[in-house]
Design goal:
Chain lengths: 278, 331
């Protein structure tokens, strides 16, 4: 029945650390690898090696650049899979009963044998968590690797994406239990939910990237050694001072005065870079 | 949203069909069906309505990934508007076929009145639940408004009325009054559709790329003097999409071809769906014979073509919140 449970005993979900995610897409690949087997049909790809490849993926990594005044623009890699919402709109719109949310752990699943492929659940999901598999005409989605997390034979019964993450940026656990590791992480790091204004009440949480403070005044060069802080340098330092041959070229090209000849190639770690020589 | 041809045809054809059924049902309920030789004419109109509705329903099955499992869609009427639509559509066949048989065989009176009421109610409820499928999708804010069911009902009534006037004149019945009803319903439908477009034009976006990713919290915000509509918080840009090629989500929810031409297509809708059929029906009010039939036939064709354009726009103008993750700034 596609009615949502009033409450679930546990709320299993993911906590994703945007501070440590390096955007390697390993979780994406392992998700695809694991979920392509063990289900009625593989996660199909169409024209995978051709000019217009497309495929079914239950987990994706987006990469964003975030700009704010007074701060260095930064890149944030942003993995996204089903958030296993408490008020999952994808479940209630399902006309066949194929979509359901489990009372015991809150996992949202699709019974692929009941799905008629009307795609309405994908329209209902504001997060783009549902994925239509054109090869067999049914909807697929993240199962939170339900065939792993309850498998006592696995040494690491966590979802594939969690087990594979080399940066340990993905955490799996019960978010209904305030003492669980994931709940403590959310509390400590200010974990947040995506688009709270949709009212879907997603289970998964994202840990924001840690603040790196205001933009270093001297640009990226400020990290290089003592005396880096508080230096004043032109705001438009367009290349970091580099050592060795490239650093010499850099200094040569950026100073029109014949200073390098007089001073000779300086120590690459010398914080007085090319801009400071002016 | 990607406009699927099968769904556009389904909602347009079944809208006209249910509009016809609604008016025929009301006519039967009010005992306004002319007696004697006109009975079969109304039976024919009901058959046309059934053909339109059935063709639409069959077309809607084409967009299913697994059409052979379509019967399962009748099971979740407690929660799903799509399931309710399927159940109501099936249930409406009963009074439709009953009333048609009655008109064909003889003079409907007495108990037929209740059958007419049931038909009108079933037709209206089916169109309403079709519209509620869209109305209930909070992820598509331009659909998530009360104007959507109003516009679906009004357009179904108007296109059904134009078709009924045309069929009545074709079958030798008195069509002047029906053409007048069609003009009134066209004006109403135009007003409701105009209201919908006004409402979505005035709506303020509630979600941004910043709230979708939560990354707006990474900064205090850019100078608000730069752009009054700018998202508060840090500015988020797409650096790399998840794939080298667009994926299914982008193709299904990120359709934007007709959005560029929205102004022109709205003008086409005004002309084809409302103004031209309105003028033609008005002209047919005061005349009879072949000229009136021709005018009403043209009006019926025009209004149906206009509704197809309107439905296309309804899909193409709708923006889905998932597009925020792919670079759309606010929805």
């Amino acid at each position: 029945m596609t009615a949502l449970p009033d409450s679930t005993r546990r709320r299993l979900g993911l906590v994703i650390d945007l501070d440590t995610c390096v955007g390697c897409h390993a979780c994406v690949v392992h998700c695809k690898e694991w979920n392509t087997g063990g289900y009625p049909a593989p996660l199909s790809d169409t024209d995978p090696y051709g000019a217009d490849p497309t495929g079914t993926w239950l987990n994706r990594v987006h990469s964003y650049e975030v700009e704010a005044p007074g701060r260095t623009p930064r890149v944030v890699h942003f993995p996204k899979s089903c958030l296993h919402c408490e008020d999952a709109p994808c479940v209630t719109v399902c006309p066949t009963g194929a979509s359901y949310k489990r009372t015991e752990d809150g996992i949202v699943l699709v019974d692929e044998d009941l799905c008629i492929g009307c795609k309405l659940c994908a329209w209902a999901c504001p997060y783009g968590a549902r994925e239509f598999d054109g090869a067999i005409g049914v909807m697929k989605k993240c199962t939170l690797c339900i065939d792993r997390i309850y498998n006592d034979h696995l040494a690491d019964p966590t979802p594939a994406c969690v087990s594979t993450c080399p940066a340990r940026a993905r955490h799996f656990g019960d978010l209904a239990d305030p003492e669980s590791k994931v709940s403590r992480l959310v509390a400590e790091r200010g974990g947040y939910e995506l688009m709270p204004e949709t009212g879907c009440r997603p289970t998964n949480r994202y840990l924001p990237p840690r603040s790196r403070g205001p933009a270093p005044v001297g640009g990226a060069g400020a990290e290089g050694g003592e005396g880096g802080e508080g230096r004043s340098a032109p705001a438009l330092a367009d290349a970091p001072p580099e050592g060795g041959f490239l650093g010499w070229i850099d200094r040569l090209l950026s100073s029109q005065a014949p200073a390098p000849r007089g001073g000779g190639p300086s120590d690459p770690s010398d914080p007085s870079g090319p801009m400071e020589s002016r | 949203m990607h406009p699927a041809y099968s769904i556009i045809f389904f909602t347009a054809a079944s809208g006209a069909g249910y509009g016809l059924m609604f008016l025929l049902g009301l006519a039967a309920a009010a005992s306004a069906v002319p007696s004697g030789s006109d009975g079969p004419a109304f039976a024919v109109a009901l058959v046309v309505a059934l053909v339109l509705v059935s063709a639409g329903l069959m077309s809607s099955a084409f967009h299913l990934g697994r059409p052979e499992r379509a019967l399962r869609a009748f099971s979740q009427w407690r929660t799903s508007w799509l399931s309710r639509e399927a159940c109501l559509a099936a249930a409406t066949y009963v009074p439709a076929v009953g009333l048609g048989a009655g008109w064909w065989m003889g003079e409907p009176d007495g108990g037929w009145r209740y059958l007419g009421l049931a038909l009108a109610a079933g037709a209206a409820a089916t169109v309403y639940s079709t519209a509620m499928i869209y109305r209930s999708l909070a992820a598509v804010p331009r659909w998530s408004t009360g104007w959507v069911p109003a516009a679906y009902l009004a357009l179904a009534g108007a296109s059904g009325a134009v078709w009924l006037a045309f069929l009545a004149s074709l079958l030798g019945s008195q069509a002047s009054g029906l053409a007048g009803v069609a003009v009134a319903l066209l004006v109403l439908a135009g007003a409701v559709k105009g209201g919908y477009w006004r409402a979505i034009g005035k709506r303020r976006a509630e979600s941004t790329i910043g709230s979708a990713t939560g990354l707006d919290r990474l900064g205090p915000g850019l100078d608000p003097g730069l752009d009054p509509g700018l998202d508060p918080g840090a500015r988020v840009h797409v650096l790399d999409p998840p794939h080298t090629e667009p994926n299914w989500l982008q193709r299904e929810m990120g359709y934007r071809v007709a959005r560029r031409h929205a102004r022109r297509l709205r003008a086409v809708t005004w002309g084809l769906a409302f103004i031209l059929p309105g003028v033609l029906c008005l002209a047919a009010c005061g005349s009879s014979g072949v000229g009136a039939s021709a005018a009403l036939g043209l009006a019926a064709a025009s209004t149906s073509a206009g509704v197809l354009v309107e439905r296309w726009l309804f899909f193409a103008e709708a923006e889905h919140k998932v597009t925020l993750y792919y670079g759309n700034r606010r929805v």
